[in-house]
Write a structure and sequence with these properties.
Layout lengths: L1 E2 L5 E2 L1 H21 L12 E5 L5 H13 L7 E5 H12 L32 H16 L1 H6 L2 H17 L2 E4 L5 E4 L3
Helix pairs in contact: 1-2
Length: 183
């Protein structure tokens, strides 16, 4: 059972299948308006799932998709990291990035989920922990303790952007400020 914001309980299969049904119907309607002779049987659906899911969770998602009107023979469950690798190999050019050439190497970092994941020690929680350790080393506990969670998130975004586009300059003044430069 999954509670909504008022506390009313719903079966998880109803919640998940309802979401999948909405997406399936919306996408079919969208493509049907562009491809006149499109039939539901012409589409093979791919749902991405976390790599850490066990067989029970995968079976549950398959049941949800079938309840949403996707026949089992038209459904593939794909692991999220594998889907991301395929995007890196095949879809980057559409984003204006150079496609990965044969023999090139790349790193795919799966940063986890919104909620604490139950996988190994390499997901988003560990990335966040390492970032907080880095901030503590740079500024000390007293200053970090004064920051709100939204300040820390904003700081993380600033640091990530500055690393991509420029060098990061950290200047210590009486009020301690962080300045980034695109030069």
């Amino acid at each position: 059972m999954i509670p909504d914001y008022t506390g009313r309980q719903m079966l998880a299969i109803e919640v998940f299948s309802g979401g999948i049904r909405y997406l399936k119907d919306h996408l079919f309607t969208h493509f049907k308006s562009r491809i006149e002779h499109l039939r539901e049987g012409d589409i093979h659906w791919v749902l991405t799932i976390p790599a850490i899911w066990d067989e029970t969770a995968k079976k549950f998602m398959r049941s949800c998709a079938e309840k949403a009107g996707i026949p089992g023979k038209q459904l593939t469950l794909a692991l999220e990291p594998e889907s991301a690798v395929l995007y890196c190999q095949l879809g980057m050019q559409r984003s204006g990035l150079s496609p990965i050439q044969s023999g090139q190497k790349f790193l795919l970092l799966d940063c986890g989920e919104i909620h604490r994941a139950s996988g190994g020690p390499w997901g988003g929680v560990k990335v966040d922990d390492a970032f907080q350790e880095h901030l503590l080393e740079l500024f000390g506990f007293e200053l970090i303790a004064l920051l709100s969670k939204s300040d820390v998130i904003e700081l993380k975004l600033i640091l990530n952007c500055s690393r991509k586009e420029s060098t990061l300059r950290i200047k210590y003044t009486q009020s301690t400020s962080i300045r980034t430069s695109s030069a």
